Amino acid sequence: MTDRIEPFDLFAIRYAHHAKRSASENFIGGDPHEEASPLDYFVWVARRSDRLFVVDTGFGHEAARHRQRTLLRLPAEGLKTLGIAAAQVEDIIITHLHYDHAGTLDAFPKARFHVQDREMAFATGRCMCHPVIRHSFAVEDITALVRHLYAGRVVFHDGDEELAPGLSVHHIGGHTAGIQSVRVWTRRGWVVLASDASHLYANMEEGRPFPIVYNVADMLEGHKRLHGLAASPRHIIPGHDPLVMQRYRPPGRELEGVAVRLDAEPSA
Ligand SMILES: [Zn+2]
Ligand SMILES: [Zn+2]
User: How far is the CA of 123 from the centre of ligand 1 (A)?
Assistant: First the structure.
């Protein structure tokens, strides 16, 4: 069935970095083997002749300053390196509404934003009464999304849905109530953009959950789910792992350190 589907080209664009991060901030119970555990921040692109999907919208200058993250380039500038004009993008999948995935929405004036029902309910409901849970959200992003909702530009999904032949969203939960991962048909088979369903390779490979979590059991089940959706463990792309930039090659020499191709086999 999939042999009739045109594969997507699939890219990760690195737009920010956080060097001063400790293992205890990335693993429940910490990590005895290492002290530093830096994070990269990405947006992703799935593109073929008939469709273009951007996955997540990152954050901008204000959030970088506020959270003390190193912004390398605005997500829209990152897209430009692949020849994509933010103003022309029509479909954006927001994996979840944390500040590092759902900022800069206004840079995409034509876009429809695809989110899970449960994520919008989560980010605008009683769970946000708890400072520890709402800490990873930015109220400016949520209100921007509500404005786009009232402008007719939000598309809701409940669970698993195909957005185009060869591309589907899958509710995973765990990290947030409504986080979704994205499954994409590529020339090397089904690749899954986990986003924060697994921040690092080690979270899912070693069954050690990330500590910012709504439901630990759902997060662990989510790791299993990712494996069920992907062609192999090498086809799962974690949301924040700096190893992604090492294991995959850039689309061209000039994009070294900026973007990598996820539709080509990784090196390790
Ligand atoms: Zn997150
Ligand atoms: Zn994140």
Answer: 12
260 CA distance to ligand 1 middle (Å): 21
Confidence band for 111, pLDDT divided at 50, 70 and 90: very high
Nearest residue to 44 (alpha-carbon basis) of 35, 54, 32, 36 = 54
Q: What is the pLDDT of residues 195-252, one digit of tens each?
A: 999 999 999 999 999 999 999 999 999 999 999 999 999 999 999 999 999 999 999 9
**Which residues, in sequence order, are CB contacts of 3 under 8 Å at separation 6+?**
none
* pLDDT-derived band at 34, boundaries 50, 70, 90: low
Cα 175 to middle of ligand 1, angstroms = 7
d(CA 145, CA 108): 12
* Alpha carbon distance 37, 133 (integer Å): 22
Q: Please, are residues 138 and 103 in contact by the beta-carbon 8 Å criterion?
A: yes
Cβ 7 vs Cβ 185: under 8 Å: yes
Token pair, residue 115, equals 């989110």
Ligand number, closest to the Cα atom of 67: 2
| pLDDT(41) > 80 | yes
What are the tokens at 41? 């921040």
The Cβ of residue 215 has, within 10 Å, a number of other Cβ atoms equal to 15
